[in-house]
Write a structure and sequence with these properties.
The protein has one helix and four strands. It has 69 residues and is α+β, with helices and mostly antiparallel strands. The chain has a four-stranded antiparallel β-sheet with strand order 1-2-4-3, with helices on one face. The mean pLDDT is 84.
Length: 69
């Protein structure tokens, strides 16, 4: 589902997964958002992605570390 993914940790605990995906932002959020939000995760999607080549940037945040939490 994710292309070019990176997993970030802080103090040995999961923080955020980032990815640059070739799917459109709306499609990504519609596919990932409901599942992640049901687990208490926050999903942020925007274009363009950091990878370039028409990718979208995706962030899936752990509930204890998401911005604004």
């Amino acid at each position: 589902m994710f292309d070019h993914q990176l997993a970030w940790i802080r103090n040995g605990r999961p923080l955020v997964i980032t990815a640059a995906n070739y799917s459109p932002v709306v499609e990504l959020h519609d596919r990932i958002g409901p599942h992640a939000e049901g687990l208490g995760l926050r999903v942020d999607c925007e274009q363009p992605g950091w990878y370039g080549h028409g990718t979208a940037h995706i962030e899936v945040w752990a509930p204890s570390h998401r911005p604004g939490a």
